[in-house]
Amino acid sequence: MYKLVNLKKLSILAAIALSITSVKAQVSPGTSSVDTAKKPPADTVVKKPEAPKSTLTFGLDMRTRFEIRHGYRALPLKDTGAGFNISQRTRFNIDFKSKNLDVFLSLQDARVWGQQDPREGQTGTSTQNTPSSTFATYFYEAYAEPHFGDKFSVRIGRQRVMYDNQRLFAENDWRLPGNSHDAIRAIFNNKINFTTELLFAFNQSGENLFTTKYQPLVPNYKSLLVNYLNWKINDKLALTTLNTMDGYQSSDPAKYTTTYQRFTLGGRLEYSTYNWYLTFSGYKQLGKDSSGKNLDAYYIQPEIKYTSGPLIVRLGMEYLSGADSSTHPSKDKNFVPLYGVAHRFMGNQDFFATFPVDVNGAGLFNPYLFFQYIKNKVSLRVESHLFYSQSQFVFKGSPVDKYLGFENDWRFNYKPSKIADLEIGFCWSAITNSMVYIKNPKVSTADVGKYSKLPYFSYVSLRLTPTFGKVTL
Fold it and tell me: The whole model's pTM is what?
């Protein structure tokens, strides 16, 4: 009996020992089973998150456009033939991006076909051996942008400047060469809802040894200072401010040491909810123009937009102040929309693209109504504009009617792939005698009837934007 009891005790002790041995085999010394669930096995290597890699991208941006002009930029005479041309703009882009530095280079060639004969300068040919003066190959953009943290950077060099809706600062992509600025730009972006920038530029014709006389081929600013701010207050409300000081050397050659400063101050308020979008922008211009005359001008643009599926409807107006030519005001009241784009705002025929020249100082009132339909790879846009002079224009001592005319633009886009965009446009206008008077103030009353009252403009454009390669460094 005693032996049987001992055998039972030994069996129990053996079972306990076996259980302990099994647990020890699963849990390393000094580690609980709970710790084991949290920590990886000893032979597993924990990988750190990979640092952002640098990339180098090569691409092409080529646009070829055929145009028929019988009322683009200038009013045609009835017996004047239409102008035809084919233009091409080619940009070869190199884009380097890294954690601490971005570099972008865009080599551009822009010309009308035939403007520069490839045979020019060659010997043994029948062509003249004088190189063409129309070469237009240069760096459209060439800048470096070092990053100081993930929110602040400084962009230095030639660069596109596009702010807000591009009314005051734009790349002017419609123009053959486009537009860029030689500038330095400090950029702060919190990557959530706030962006602000400070841009500075100073232009000279060359490396002057003395003074700062500026002699550009076309009128341009001598100095530029811009502050841009965009704050998305919430998911419905956004505020943009854009304040600019640009300096122009005196138009009087004897006063080239004097630079007159022009100030443009204002911004935009945007509100969106469901299918509706409302916005209002306003700017005031102060300071002096290039002749030294005091400025007192303004601009406003209210707009409402409704979106329903593929359909977008926009109703708004632009109001640019001008001067009443019968009163000869002591101040310059002409608002100039700085370095923005007019093509997308005031009609594709670009009758009002340069201010105040194109309105002869009378300002402009432009109510508009846009319809746009976007479906898959196709979009259709129809724009209608009414044009009025903002102030009273006087032609040879008599005031003229403020109504200048109506413009209607049609634009069709087809994008068969991500790298191709085919665009076809047709624009026409119904103009009045007042438009002829303002655009051609020296015309005689007898010759007004010689101008076509239905000018038109049409074009076909093909844009290709392939990426040749992307290298991860």
Answer: 0.85
